[in-house]
Each structure stands twice: as structure tokens, then as C-alpha cells.
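Technical note accompanying the year-one report. For the benefit of new consortium partners, we illustrate the data format agreed upon in the data management plan: each record pairs a sequence with a C-alpha cell string. No post-processing was applied to the example shown here.
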Amino acid sequence: MNRKRTALIAGWVVWAMLIAAPNALAVTHGGQGILGPTNALEITEVMFFLLLFFPALIVLFSLIQSRLDHRKHARMDAAKRRTTAEEWKGGW
């Protein structure tokens, strides 16, 4: 039942996109963007920002992942030390 419902919803979404696409392409704004007419300097500044933003984002996510991996390995090493420690073996 779930697969059938998901397929039906996906079909309706695709159908709606196909119906709406010609209308979206037919709208014209006279070559202006969201903020009005742009010039080459504004485009260049935005592209320089993007060239700096995405590598900075990649470096930030890599640092976060490195820190999380370090914590994971420290936790695994501590668990291994607990299993081999004499004080935790035996019972009384």
C-alpha cells in the first residue's frame, strides 16, 4: 500500500511539474534578475564570493569530521582498554 501511494504521489508531482514548466519559461522580466538589472562588476563580485565560500565550507566540514573521527577513535580505544583491564575481569 505504501509503495502504491508513493508511486501515485510521485506521478502527480511529475505531472504537475510538466504542466507548470511551460508557464514558468514563458514569464519574462526583461532580462532583470531578482534585484533588478545587474552589471558585470556585480556578477564578478558574487562569483568571487562563491569561489571563496565553497572551499571554506569544505574546509569547515572537513575539520568537523576530523574532530568527530578523533572522538570516535578515542572512545573505541577507551572501550578496548576497559575490556583488557584486570580490574574489570573476574567478579568479586
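Partners are asked to follow this layout when depositing records. Residues 19 and 25 are 11 Å apart (CA to CA).
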